Amino acid sequence: MDFKYPKNEKLKSRKTIDLLFTEGKSVSKFPLRLVYTPIEDCEGKIKFGVSVSKKHFKYAVDRNYFKRVLRECYRLNKHLILDNLDQKYAVMFFYQTKERLSYAEINEKTIQLFEKWNLAVKEQNND
Fold first, then answer.
1. What does the DSSP 8-state code read for residue 57?
2. What structural domains does the chain harbor?
């Protein structure tokens, strides 16, 4: 199993991020939300980004902490989604609460969210 988060998996393209917000679909598992859209021009199977709202965490230190936690949860659990993908996706991962959940709670919610996303992608492909 590959637990890396290489540069080619990082979502950095402004055009792709704008596409996510205009045409993307979302899946939620409180307090996490995942917005995704299929893309064509991508090196790997997935482009992944994280975001934590300034509205919920005023200080950059707090936002950066939760972004690190989200990236780590993705890195350790990405096998749950990569094994089930048959096309390339751009994905944005959001932390949407003022509550300061522990790493273990966020990791558990991440696993549940990834399983929920797998079901959504399967349904979308069957239609």
1. -
2. 7-120 (3.30.230.10)
